Protein 1
Amino acid sequence: MSAKLITTKRAATAALLLPTLLMGACQIVPPSQMAAVRADAAPPQITPTPTPASAMNETPTPAPEPASTDAVPSQADLVGHWSMDTAFYYDLAADGAFSMTIGNAVGETPQRTGQWLIQDDGTVELTSDDESIMTARVFGEVLLVSVGDTRGDTQSFLRKLGPDRKPLPVVTASSNTALPLFDAAATTQVLFNLNWTGYSPLAPIVNQSALTLTNGTYEGMAHLEAAGYRDGISDTVAISVPASVMTPFLTALASTPVVSEPYRPYFSHTDDYPSLEIRVQTGGHTIVFSTTSQGPTHIPWAITVDGQQYVSYSDDIAIALAEVQPFLARDAQEKLLDKVRAGGA
């Protein structure tokens, strides 16, 4: 990833996509109550772009070989402050005690206390004084908490906080798969499906574009929609992304740290359903980055390389995407949304 992407990440991810601006009606819930409030509404489905016939007979690039993995975390990895959705704060102490508060004010009275312990298999158990148990595992600066019910398997997570009690960036997460995932320089086409739905008069919001490398610039059309559940409006505009922007973006995607495991989206509240997909065509092969996870950087992401699925818990994809988004008809999309807000839909 370029130095520019890393140094501008805070400003970039703040403006990543619409979900974080539309969460006024959302209900945030702790991990222990997640299954009970799982929304019945399904997130929007991504329609895959057909693979060109010319690529069907290509010999697939072998999937990257897994490397060593599954190191047991140390106590130092766990001790400190953790947060879920900047609402629930967990303090894990060196003596094995933990406390949970609602709100980030120092000195708040804990709503829950208990003990935490690293298990032999590397997972972490947080046992509350009421004997309820939350099992999690460490992945870099993320503490993953499994949450399952009969309607699907999702997960929540806690993010480690820095001295300023703000989430640390997940840009140092390790990979158990060889990198890069693909040859960024050989990319000929990039497709974006950046959609959102939820409890809002603007929903669903659709931004879909297909860009093809033409004379050193990625050019194409963007199709935009808003308020489709009512009298929806739409627009189609020509767009282009210079190589000086697209090349660092593709390089960041290719270098994203991944692990070989099933994809389980992050879910913490209702009425907020992002559905993002980036489809890269390179050397006759297709690499897909997709997510239906909530949160400002939508981790984890699912990554498919020639049919082999991986998962990434790194912020790198969102950081890179935020640099490209101003070129993906963002101004035209905002005008469309403003028209809906003004009663024009």
Protein 2
Amino acid sequence: MRALVVEDEASLRESLQARLGQAGFTVDVARDGDEGLFAGREYPLDVAVIDLGLPGLSGLELIRRLRAEGKTYPILILTARDNWQDKVEGLQAGADDYVVKPFHFEEVLARLQALLRRAGGWASPQLKCGPIVLDTRAQHLLKALVERYIRDGEPVGSRTLSKDSGLDLSPASIRNIMADLEEMGFVAAPHTSAGRVPTVKGYRLFVDTMLKVKPLDEQELRLMRTHLDPSETNPQALLVSASNMLQAITHMTGVVTLPRREHLSWRHIEFLPLSENRVLVILVLNDGEVQNRVLHLERGYDASGLQQISNYLNSHFAGRDIHELRRGLLNELNRTRESMNDLMRAAITMAEKVFQARSGEATYMMAGETNLMEFAELSDVEKLRRLFEAFNHKRDILHLLDKCIAAEGVQIFIGEESGYKVLDECSVVTAPYSVGEDVVGVLGVIGPTRMAYERVIPIVDVTARLLSAALNPRK
């Protein structure tokens, strides 16, 4: 069972964390309402304990927001005020029960167990994963093994697990539990007598039920805000900053898809002559964006001829949806090829070249690809070659990122979960970003499966929120 404790009093928060941990809970803690909101949104919780008297975002407002976002796990409120009005207000906000301070821990535990029974979630300290059941000892050992392997990148032996887990178990008992975990598919032994490593299945169980995501500290947040400054008016520069920031902070690969605009149309086009059969194209879109590109043509045109081509295209195609425009140009060229004069053919051929150039533009921005060379499990030359080819070809990576646009919050693909063999030894952590009310793109981090998820997840989440805020239109 995974519980969240949101309490600003450090001694009480730490006491609840320790006692609930002894009772078989995996416990996340938050010091104020803002941290609690992040944890309540992002963690797969079974129950939450929330103090009403929090600094900043109040406990009542925190509960209201969590319920408004569809979070249905039971909530137990803590209150120092023993009057019926506070209790009623808390229950009306969405809480399920309350305890008045000061309290005995046994009462808190009993109320939590009762809430979980009513919610159909409490049976025992055992963790169920489909038909497989892990007891508390197996959970602790698996958690200790994953954390140690993420940190060191080496197979973990029973002696190390005995120290890291804090359990009073003999090396023989630990080996027996490890053998059970291996049989269940959560760990694997890469070499005989060399310790064990987590499998994709083990990582998934760890991320979903055992991981404690740590909110970023204020210094890191200030640094991230300077990289994604809302005063920056160039959207392209913000996307570049986001991908560079992700790779710099995580030391892995940062990726940001370019914004999708569903109703983008061509407002106006102009052609200006340059030297050596080159033409400068100025394309104005309906949202006011101006794009420039240089075309290399088979013949030269003077300013007068280019103006006639601009006039023809603007009169016949202005206002058309840009995603359908290229198909329309081809249809027009095929349908009336015989009756076209030279001007019409030149105009449509030139417009086709504009959209051929546009279709070849980058669909996402990536930074820090070479950071992956620093991880031993990805440093094999052949693995790196295939990975970098996938980055360059873009199709598979883009398909994976496209899956995340319709999803809410942070998405995590571990190893073969991505569906692309080249990423079998990588994890991808993504979050959508938006402009106004519309989700327009996805950003994320690509790294080894043994990435520090508790750190990468909040970095990706906060970056998406900051990029969304920076891209929103200025009032």
